[in-house]
């Protein structure tokens, strides 16, 4: 039996995922393919081979087919969506053959170029930005730069292998080079500034960046169709429409149905990310705010914390050592966290297990608890103080958005923290904003890619509507909702002021801890 639906593909850092959803966007099959990093001598080097992504894609789609076949179904794919790890540097020749392993978002060799471009272009250019990687390549590997004809991302390269074209979704493209919100294309003035900078260095040996970048496409626009190679790779007929390939962050927002200005997607895990849909471009440069675009081109302002739940996990782990073998430390400690007073009995914390560049914390290893006494020294207070410190850091990083009056109408929470969903109340109280934890709405980048495929299909049919309305129509289940409690919010405001003072002392604390 043939079943109509959509194929969603995600090229992740740890591996590739593929899902098949029916026309009602119910996930019916999932497949995975793996790959490894290229071994490197330096700690800051993180590379993968694009050819490995393609092999993983074939493996993942074959697994999807096998799962469907068990139920007597054969996929009739109406459209394909692609997402992938943002900010990569995939350099190819004219035929699309990679010239070297791809440098990934986590490769840290071009931090200086990121700072230089931020100053030169007048917009935040984190070291992850693909253009910063390219500037490093121009300077450090001119032989490679001179042979490059195309520059794209992991998602863009998979799209090339499926369609033969060089296009990219606007969210992923914004992770390569700044987007002009007036034209929703690469910023031509800043491209000229980049060209002048490159020409003053080794850039004269290579093609202009503007000639290397893929064409920008928005959700619903033409991302190409399966060509002969793509059809053979996936076992599908030629001509299947492909949505513009997107980055993992825009795709994750799509998977959580986040599209309207004022909506904020917060994901809490080892690191923390808050992506806020803006109603206008951000003005100026802030060290804590990165910028890219939603799939429809709306600006997104991102606050990212390296120090997520790591310090909280460390506190829970400390108590785990005193529990009987086989005990679940989180199952024991998290109810105590929920029962702890809003002020943690007077305890305060700093969660800096690692550095935090967006907050000006250059050295980690200074996580601590402050204010212990005989009345508050218990697991619930200690763990909650660490959690609140992380949420406070996210609020600190978001202050530039508040200063410019960006809306924050709803926070959609995801990630490991939602394993204890009642903690959503803490976030609602700290940010004085409603918090939603979706129930029944599939989250994740592969599902976001499948939604992009569905939108492309319905755009072709003339039945898509605008992007926010399309996503809103697919909300399912009964989400958990938390609204700010005025008394708790007032208490947390006072604790937040104290936290700001503690963070200001962090550099001196780190010196005291690390100096002999």
Key words describing this protein structure:
single chain, 516 residues, 18 helices, Nucleotidyltransferase, domain 5, globular, 3 domains, 5-stranded mixed β-sheet, 7-stranded mixed β-sheet, alpha/beta
Describe the structure concisely.
This protein has 516 residues and is of the alpha/beta class.
What topology emerges from the helices and strands here?
Layout: E1 2-11, E2 15-22, E3 27-34, E4 47-48, H1 50-70, E5 74-84, E6 90-92, E7 102-103, H2 111-121, H3 130-140, H4 142-147, E8 150-152, H5 154-163, E9 167-169, H6 170-174, E10 179-180, E11 185-186, H7 188-199, H8 209-212, E12 215-217, H9 228-234, E13 246-247, H10 248-255, E14 263-268, E15 272-277, E16 290-293, E17 299-305, H11 310-320, H12 329-339, E18 348-350, E19 368-370, H13 379-403, E20 410-415, H14 424-431, E21 435-437, H15 445-460, H16 467-472, E22 480-482, H17 486-504, H18 506-514
Parallel strand pairs: 1-5, 5-13, 9-12, 14-20, 20-21
Antiparallel strand pairs: 1-2, 2-3, 4-7, 6-8, 10-11, 14-15, 15-17, 16-17, 18-19, 21-22
Low-confidence runs of at least 5 consecutive residues: none
Radius of gyration: 23 Å
Per CATH, what is the topology of the largest domain?
Answer: Nucleotidyltransferase, domain 5
Q: Write the CATH architecture name of the largest domain.
A: 2-Layer Sandwich
How many β-strands, per DSSP?
A: 22
Q: Helicity level, as a percent range?
A: 25-40%
User: How many separate domains?
Assistant: 3
Ends apart, CA distance between termini: 72 Å
Q: Main beta sheet, described?
A: 7 strands, mixed
Could you give the order of strands across the largest sheet?
16-17-15-14-20-21-22
The CATH H-level homologous superfamily of the largest domain: ATPase, nucleotide binding domain
Please report which band the strand proportion falls in: under 5%, 5-15%, 15-25%, 25-35%, 35-45% or over 45%: 15-25%
Mean pLDDT: 93
Broad CATH class of the largest domain: Alpha Beta
């Amino acid at each position: 039996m043939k079943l109509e639906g959509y194929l969603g593909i995600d090229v992740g850092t740890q591996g590739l995922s593929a899902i098949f959803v029916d026309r009602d966007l119910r996930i019916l099959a999932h497949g995975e393919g793996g790959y490894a990093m290229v071994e490197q001598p330096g700690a800051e080097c993180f590379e993968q081979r694009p050819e490995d992504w393609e092999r993983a894609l074939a493996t993942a789609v074959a697994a999807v087919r096998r799962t469907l076949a068990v139920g007597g179904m054969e996929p009739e794919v109406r459209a394909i969506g692609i997402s992938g790890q943002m900010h990569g540097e995939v350099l190819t020749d004219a035929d699309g053959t990679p010239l070297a392993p791809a440098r990934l978002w986590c490769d840290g060799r071009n931090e200086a170029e990121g700072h230089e471009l931020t100053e030169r272009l007048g917009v935040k250019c984190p070291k992850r930005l693909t253009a910063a990687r390219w500037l490093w390549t121009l300077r450090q590997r001119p032989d490679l730069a001179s042979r490059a004809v195309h520059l794209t991302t992991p998602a863009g390269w998979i799209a090339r292998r499926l369609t033969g074209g060089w296009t990219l979704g606007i969210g992923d493209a914004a992770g390569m080079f700044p987007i002009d919100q007036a034209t929703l294309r690469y910023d031509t003035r800043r491209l000229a500034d980049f060209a002048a900078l490159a020409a003053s260095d080794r850039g004269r040996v290579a093609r202009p960046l503007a000639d290397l970048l893929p064409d920008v496409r928005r959700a619903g626009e033409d991302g190409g169709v399966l060509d002969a190679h793509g059809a053979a790779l996936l076992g599908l007929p030629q001509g299947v429409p492909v949505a513009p390939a997107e980055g993992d962050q825009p795709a994750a927002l799509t998977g959580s149905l986040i599209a309207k200005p004022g909506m904020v997607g917060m994901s809490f895990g080892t690191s923390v990310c808050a992506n806020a849909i803006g109603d206008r471009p951000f003005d100026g440069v802030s060290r804590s705010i990165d910028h890219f675009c939603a799939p429809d081109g709306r600006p997104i302002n991102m606050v990212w914390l390296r120090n997520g739940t790591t310090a909280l996990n460390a506190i829970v782990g400390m108590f785990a050592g005193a529990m009987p073998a086989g005990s679940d430390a989180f199952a024991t400690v998290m109810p105590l966290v929920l029962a702890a007073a809003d002020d943690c009995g007077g305890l305060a914390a700093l969660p800096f297990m690692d550095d935090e560049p967006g907050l000006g914390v250059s050295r980690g290893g200074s996580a601590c608890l402050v204010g212990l006494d005989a009345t508050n020294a218990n697991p619930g207070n200690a763990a909650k103080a660490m959690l609140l410190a992380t949420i406070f850091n996210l609020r600190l990083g978001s202050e530039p958005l508040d200063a410019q009056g960006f809306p924050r109408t709803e926070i959609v929470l995801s990630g490991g923290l939602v394993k204890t969903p009642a903690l959503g109340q803490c976030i609602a109280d700290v940010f004085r904003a409603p918090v939603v934890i979706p129930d029944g709405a599939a989250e994740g980048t592969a599902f976001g890619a499948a939604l992009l495929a569905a939108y492309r299909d319905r755009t072709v049919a003339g039945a898509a509507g605008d992007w926010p309305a399309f996503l809103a129509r697919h909300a399912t289940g009964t989400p958990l909702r938390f609204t700010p409690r005025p008394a708790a919010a007032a208490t947390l405001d006072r604790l937040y002021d104290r936290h700001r003072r503690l963070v200001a002392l962090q550099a001196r604390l780190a010196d005291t801890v690390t100096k002999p």
